[in-house]
Description:
The chain is mainly alpha-helical. The chain has helices spanning 51-55, 59-67, 70-91, 96-102, 105-133, 139-160, 168-196, 200-227, 236-242, 246-259, 266-321, 337-349, 351-369, and strands at residues 21-24, 29-32, 35-39, 46-48, 331-332, 335-336.
Amino acid sequence: MSGASEPGSSAGDDTGGSGGATAETDGATTETDGATTETDGDSDASTADTMRERAGESRVKLWLLLRANRLVVAGVLTLAVFVAFVAAAAALSPSLAVKVGSKDPIETLFASMITAIVTGATLVVTIGQLVLTQENGPLGDQRKRMDDTLAVRDSIAELTGSPAPTDPAAFLDAVLAAASERARALRESVREGAHSDEGPNRAALREDIEELTGGVVGNADTVRGRLDGAEFGSFDVVFAALGFDYGPKIGRIERIADDHGDALTDAERDLLGGLQESLSLFAPAREHVKTLYFQWALIDLSRLILYAAVPALVVAGLMLAVVDAGTFPGRTLGIDHVTLVVGGAFAVTLLPFSLFVSYVLRVLTLAKRTLAIGPLVLRD
């Protein structure tokens, strides 16, 4: 994002989580380092609530791909290019200063960079136009979009018992609150029924319900804590929503309904269905917020690249028109000044590309981690 709307790693950052290890609900659900892992007796797969646990990747890698400020990532890439360029130019023989004196690598390099910058900026404008095209359309299409949005809001209002919030973080929080409330109601109902009938079927049902509801309540409460105070425009809202792994929970509800259909009372079956409904509504709500973030990020990316293209073109032009072997004589720490200048100018001209890489890495990683909607678990 832009500097105003792209905060750095915030307090809500929990790619790995922190804290001790907590076991809850008859040992069926285990929480380690802020991640809740659900084990399913009917499946060889296990799921975790944090992205780091589900992806099996390091905290540093996911922080770099997702949580880190995109402007900082772009700056680090630019600095790395500068350091690598200067190190290579100083180490290789003959040195860059000698080459500049005998021929003109500066002209070759920066003439190519001017072409690349102009072409890249034009491509970015085209991408921005494609994003904006999705927001344009005839009156009938706009009316349908509005009707679909209001229909979903009505469903969430019916689920929560109050009007759906307009703030994206509060919108997701309301759905999670409803899911947590319904999970608690289901757990209490099954516990109360166990006092009157504790046969083998009811015991197995109670164990599965305890495991399911414990995972839903714990996961929902954790994500709601991350959503508290998060503002759309930063990545905080979307990243917090990624922490609620609703797909396996919906699948578990379906298996419980199938395995314990005879043991469930009508009231418990209704509560189980209500919990499934609340989890199912979270899926399109999260996807809607994610889609809005994609559009927001791509528009910001287009704007930033256009901003960076102007100074990059100026620097490339100055290097072509002004700099030669005698412009920056002398050495510092054994490195020719002309090498430092050429390396710095090259890094500056690559800044638009660094911005592109930093944003696209986040968008592609997020898209990969949320490919499936519903109870379908994808893993590498």
